[in-house]
């Protein structure tokens, strides 16, 4: 009977922790390195913005508008920026990160650092501020490249169609492929007094620290047959998998906490995040529980309406938190 009452109290606790308060939205505009991905149940590709929600508490909502293949120019021309402006409210934030596709030579996307690229970044900043929201400028995340001869002209989206093969390596240090496109966000930030986060340096240090082979684990590098949805394998140095996106999102959340005082108190680190829509590092509670070390206190954040198991595996010490549209955090 005592055990039954304890269980009831735990379930009731799901709704016991509530808090009123303003919900702040962080909008993300950018390219495929940040974007949400389709079919997360079978597709392991993730953008860092797709999983960023798991690093903030219930007072902050992430609205990810980053899209595969877009540059600062095409994002504006396609009306995507206007749609963000229509949702912005005073007190919100906009993370602005472009560069990967501004480098491309086609007329629909190409911009010039020191010229049209800077102008587009200024427009994002100016129009964000007109709505009494706060812009945050980031430069492009690093493209994994340990080959001196690379000119950085590879079409990032086409990388999804490449097969796994041994890569060409002739350097033990990362070789930059972005050039002057990394300077524009910093320059505009200094000019307009905007918070700047050096995402390129942050991701460079992460990948360099893991080394040539270790850094593959962050990206869509899969041998034939390793992932059912990618039968021929993939050799992709630009796009992140679940592990890579989660690690990058964690580092960028910490950088935001360091640079933006008002958001600092809302940054959180949980042991695991579960989301059936691919916004965490596990799709199901069952997968997360398998990864929980026996006897170690572990906190699992539930980002969707994922059901909690009636009982836990022997030896597992787990606390569940539920994030629900910024309204409630349940403790089970």
Radius of gyration: 21 Å
Number of contiguous helices? 9
Looking at CATH, the homologous superfamily of the largest domain is: SGNH hydrolase
Uncertain runs with pLDDT below 50, 5 residues or more?
A: 1-20, 325-332
- N-to-C SSE string, H for helix and E for strand: HEEHHEHEHEHEEHHEHEEE
- Morphology call: globular
Structural class: alpha/beta
Question: What portion of residues belong to β-strands?
Answer: 15-25%
- Level-2 CATH architecture of the largest domain: 3-Layer(aba) Sandwich
Overall domain count: 2
Question: Termini separation (Å)?
Answer: 19 Å
Outline the biggest β-sheet. 5 strands, parallel
| CATH topology term of the largest domain | Rossmann fold
Annotation, overall tally of beta strands:
11
Strand order within the widest beta sheet: 2-1-3-4-5
CATH classification, class level of the largest domain: Alpha Beta
Percent range for helical residues?
Answer: 25-40%
Average pLDDT, rounded to a whole number, is 89
């Amino acid at each position: 009977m005592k055990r039954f009452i304890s269980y009831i109290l735990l379930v009731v606790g799901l709704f016991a922790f509530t808090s009123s308060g303003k919900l702040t939205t962080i909008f993300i505009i950018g390219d495929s390195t940040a974007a949400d991905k389709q079919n997360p149940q079978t597709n392991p590709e993730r953008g860092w913005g797709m999983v960023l929600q798991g690093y903030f508490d219930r007072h902050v909502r992430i609205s990810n508008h980053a899209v595969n293949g877009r540059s600062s120019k095409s994002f504006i021309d396609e009306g995507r920026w206007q749609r963000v402006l229509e949702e912005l409210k005073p007190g919100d934030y906009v993370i602005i990160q472009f560069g990967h596709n501004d480098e491309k030579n086609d007329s629909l996307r190409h911009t010039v650092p020191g010229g049209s690229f800077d102008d587009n970044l200024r427009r994002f900043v100016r129009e964000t501020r007109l709505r009494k929201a706060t812009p945050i400028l980031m430069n492009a995340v690093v493209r994994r490249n340990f080959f001196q001869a690379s000119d950085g002209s590879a079409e990032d989206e086409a990388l999804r169609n490449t097969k796994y093969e041994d890569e060409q390596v002739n350097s033990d240090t990362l070789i930059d492929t972005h050039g002057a496109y990394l300077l524009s966000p910093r320059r505009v930030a200094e000019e307009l007094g905007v918070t700047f986060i050096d995402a390129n340096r942050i991701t460079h240090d992460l990948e360099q620290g893991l080394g040539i082979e270790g850094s593959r684990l962050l990206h869509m590098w899969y041998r034939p047959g390793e992932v059912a949805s990618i039968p021929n394998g993939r050799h992709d140095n630009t796009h992140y998998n679940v592990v890579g996106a989660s690690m990058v999102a964690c580092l960028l959340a910490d950088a935001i906490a360091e640079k933006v005082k008002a958001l600092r108190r809302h940054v959180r680190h949980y042991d695991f995040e579960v989301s059936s829509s691919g916004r965490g590092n596990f799709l199901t509670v069952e997968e997360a529980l398998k990864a929980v070390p026996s006897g170690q206190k572990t906190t699992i954040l539930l980002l969707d309406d994922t059901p909690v198991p009636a009982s836990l595996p022997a030896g597992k010490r787990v606390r569940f938190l539920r994030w629900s549209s910024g309204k409630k955090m349940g403790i089970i």
